[in-house]
Each structure stands twice: as C-alpha cells, then as structure tokens.
Write a structure and sequence with these properties.
Blueprint (H helix, E strand, L loop, with lengths): L11 H8 L7 E2 L2 E2 H5 L1 H20 L3 H30 L1 H4 L2 H26 L4 H28 L12
Helix pairs in contact: 3-4, 3-7, 4-6, 6-7
Pfam families: DUF2231 (PF09990)
InterPro entries: DUF2231_TM
Keywords: Membrane, Transmembrane, Transmembrane helix
C-alpha cells in the first residue's frame, strides 16, 4: 500500500479477505499436494492430443493404444488432483472466499469431465478417435489452459496455498 495517496482509502472487503487463512491444508512437509499432483494430468492431456495427431498422420493402431492409456491416466490422475483441490477449497477459508478459486474449480471439473469422456470414447470404440477423440483432446487442452491460468493466478497473484516460513 506504499503507492496509496492520503486521499485513497483501503478497501474493507479486500482487507477482510486478506485476513483469512490461505495456507494449504493438504500438504506434506509444507508442500501443497494439489500443486504437486496437477502436473501429471496436465502433461497427459497434452500427451493425448499429441498421440491423436500422430495417429492422424500415421494411421498406425499403436497410437490408438497409447491414446487409450494416456487419456485414461489423465482422467484418473485428474480425479486424484481434483479430490485434493476440492479438499483445499472446502477446508481453507481464504481459498473458499475468492471468486478465482471457484472459477478454477469449475474449469478443472469441466476438464476432468471432458477427459473422462475422451477416455470412455476410446474404451467403447477406438475407431472414432478421428474426429471425435481429437475434438475432445483439443477441448481438454483448451480447458487445461483455462484451469491452469486461474490456478496460476491464485498462486502468483493471491499467494494461495503457499506456506512461507517467517524467515522468508
């Protein structure tokens, strides 16, 4: 608040929000589990899209099998990360009180749903990967970007989930 002039007043809503605890409730040795667990589903969502592109260009059935595994693992890892994220959302008042937290949660839940649909499609009929699986993979990649942007905003702009020691 060093930039505030004497005529500016602090926003009481923001001050009240900043007073709420926003440190991670689900952590191991001070490291938030949600932040650690999202990397696998993110990589696997983009990996599934890459596999679909490889299949599109090569028509090699090998890529269908790889896509089945990457999409399934992306979904299951996303569910695990989502459970930890939901626990954080519900247990930490400083996280729950922010609109950006809910935007991140909605984008992430939508992403998990699309990843599940993508995996289910491949389980039922691998031959429909082109075009339906590819479209779901593109949608999942876009949703990953949206959810990731909101998650990054929570961490870098709001300091959500950070456990900073007094010496730092």
């Amino acid at each position: 608040m060093a930039n505030m002039s004497e005529t500016d007043e602090a926003n009481p809503v923001i001050e009240q929000l900043e007073e709420k605890d926003k440190t991670s409730a689900v952590a191991v040795a001070g490291h938030p589990l949600h932040a650690m667990s999202v990397h696998f589903p993110i990589a696997l969502v983009f990996g599934t899209l890459a596999v679909d592109v490889f299949y599109w260009f090569s028509a090699d059935p090998f890529w269908l099998r790889v896509g089945l595994w990457t999409s399934g693992t992306a979904f299951l890892a996303g569910v695990a990360a989502g459970l930890v994220g939901t626990a954080e959302l519900l247990l930490v008042p400083g996280i729950r009180a922010r609109a950006a937290s809910w935007a991140h949660a909605i984008a992430a839940i939508t992403l998990i749903s699309v990843a599940g649909a993508n995996w289910g499609l491949r389980l039922l009929d691998p031959n429909v990967v082109l075009p339906h699986g590819m479209l779901l993979s593109v949608l999942a990649a876009v949703l990953t970007g949206v959810a990731g942007w909101h998650g990054g905003k929570l961490i870098f702009d709001h300091g959500i989930g950070l456990m900073v020691s007094p010496k730092d």
